[in-house]
Amino acid sequence: MNDRRDTGTSDAALLRSIVRAAANAPSAHNTQPWEPRITAHGIELGVARGRTLPFGDPTGRDTLLALGAWTECAVVAADAAGRGLDVTVRPAIADPSAIVAGRSDDVLAELRLRAAPDGATGAGDAAGPDDVAPAGGRSSAPLGNRLTFRGRMHADPGLLEGASFELPSWLRLVPISAKDLAHFSSLGTADVLTRPGVAEELAGWLRLAPMHPRYDVDGLSDRTMLLPIPLARLAAGVTRRRRLRNLSARAARRTSDLVRRLLLEVHLDAAGDDADAAHFVLVADANRLDLGRGVELTRVLNAPLGLPADRVFEAGRALLRVWLFVTRRGAAFAPHSEVLDSALAQGELQYRLGLDRRDVPLFVTSVGVPAVAEPPRSARRRVV
Ligand SMILES: Cc1cc2nc3c(=O)[nH]c(=O)nc-3n(C[C@H](O)[C@H](O)[C@H](O)COP(=O)(O)O)c2cc1C
């Protein structure tokens, strides 16, 4: 009886530390859209209300990728503690529009803790996941070190080839030149900004001065955006007041790169000046998935995501493994989702890369080794 209660308690402690470690996962605009709930056997994962991007991410692609990445972080943390997690996706994940609209309180995935091997006690083990990855911390291990870096980066030859081994056969990394990426990024930014609500929504996630009440919690800070301090402070007042924010966001639809950089999470240097970094697109090959036939297949391919939602979630898990692979080599990502957020830019990208209708691009990023010693880290919600 005592034994059973001890095991339960240590499992609960282990699960809490796994949840803390998984909070290091990446998410578009650092929204952190996950809502984990610890149960007697594991973790139930849902989406957090108000932490999705209904305007910027209407298909739910980025939300599903982030939830997948969170899940993979949890799996990595459990492995590091000598335990495993079995992941089962629940049917509610199939409705991305409900997920993005924050209408769904349903469990999207269940992570069940595997039984401890004989003699292991879970959370009490030497290599607990907290050692691996304190949320927002700077551990020497990959989860806590994984990074988005929007400044100058050096090349790491062979990085993409190595990273490809982390992927299942239906996902691949397609290289793209710096010049092409710069073009698609500008096109995507300009196009996305014409959509009502997008700039306003993004401005709402900016944290441009430490006095912002959520500076240490979530969103994009002046530091991680590498904004010059005077400029960031100037803009901070604007982005904190909703009316001013909306006015300036509207004006930005017609203005300079500088203002766009303030209002959109766009890394303008990476694709242009920084020809050292490599750039790639994560592409799903629907031909290699069993997606049915005839009308059924057409329905999936024509749906806004172009893939079943559970596959995008799975791609998020694989993406995180690739991100950790590059982290171990000292490298970071500088994503460019604006390329896929715009149908125009995405269409041109597919044509340029020779992708056909069943090749679904899911993520675009630059990758390289940050040229600074202490790259800025992004904020995280506190996890108990
Ligand atoms: C699906 C997804 C899309 C993202 N898109 C962009 C993007 O378009 N531009 C960008 O600068 N960062 C992008 N990011 C990176 C996030 O902003 C970053 O993960 C977040 O701010 C937390 O920072 P961290 O990765 O350093 O922990 C994206 C991340 C994810 C998971």
Automatic annotation (TrEMBL):
Gene3D superfamilies associated with the record: NADH Oxidase (3.40.109.10)
UniProt GO molecular function: oxidoreductase activity
Highest taxon, organism lineage: Bacteria
Region (Disordered): 118-144
Compositionally biased spans, kind Low complexity: 118-137
InterPro entries: Nitroreductase-like
Signal peptide location: none
Protein name in UniProt: Nitroreductase
